[in-house]
Design a protein that fits this description.
Oligomer: single chain
Strand content: 25-35%
CATH class of the largest domain: Mainly Beta
CATH topology of the largest domain: Lipocalin
Largest sheet: 4 strands, antiparallel
Order of helices and strands: HHEEEEEEEEEEEEEEEEEEEEE
Number of domains: 2
Number of helices: 2
Amino acid sequence: MTAPDRVSRYRDRVARRRIPIAILLATAPAALAAGCGETTDHAAMRPPPVQKVAQVPRGVKVVVFDGDLGRPVARARVRLGRLATRTNRSGVAILRPRHRRLLPLRISASGYNGRALHVNVRRRPLTGVRIFRRSLQWTLFGANDARTQTQPWIHVRPPLRVIWSRPLGGLIEFPAVVTDGVAYIGNAWGSVRGLSMANGALAWRFNIPHGKLASSPAVVGDELVVHGMDGHVWVFDRHNGRLLWHLMIGAPIESSPLIWHGLDFFGSWNGNVYALDLATHRVRWVYHSGYKITSSASRRGGTIYIGD
């Protein structure tokens, strides 16, 4: 084989090797373009984009139970801010406020005293609230307007035991009145106090200047009415002990308050029987008996009874 023939064969072999390389280089850009296209099979296999779902805020749980009996209160109406619902059989209500902050909470139920408070739902997603049945409260001396000294709905029988006790620094001549888990009482030194029925802790205290108390107070709504031997009628905010107003009668008052239709009925040592309007702070009428009155008034129907 001559030299020119050998050179020709070598060129043919080199040419045959370059053809696959050229084909490979030519198909690679096409594959890349196909991978980037939206109509290819590879694009169809891509997972769909994840849609953002609006997050539902966690619920705020409110548990309502009877403050005297410790039982859950079903069907109680719970209002948190602008949201409202009712409790289930277990006394539980779940609400989902949009904003986690300090919100007003109101509780009401048939036969119970309502309750209003503020709750920071950011810090307290679970809140327990005690409400108290009206028929179980002892809001005035003698338990009721007839002064029967009995409460048929309270079933307390001997043997009895002491739960707690605390000194009050003076003679206690008349018993306390109780509502919504707080006992209100005064002593002979004119000190009026609110005490927790759970453990006897002091809720508030007000010392009447130069005062002396020889009767039980009375609860009417959010107010506490107190009669003093200094001749004054004192009216407090029962929740914090703040003095709201007072009125001078002019003679010692040993009668415990009897509140009916917004009037406070009582007698005094000067022999007068008074009907004091608690809304206007004025005496509606006075009856002059002529004898020193130390007893408390009672009511049956539309008649007021009082002894000297």
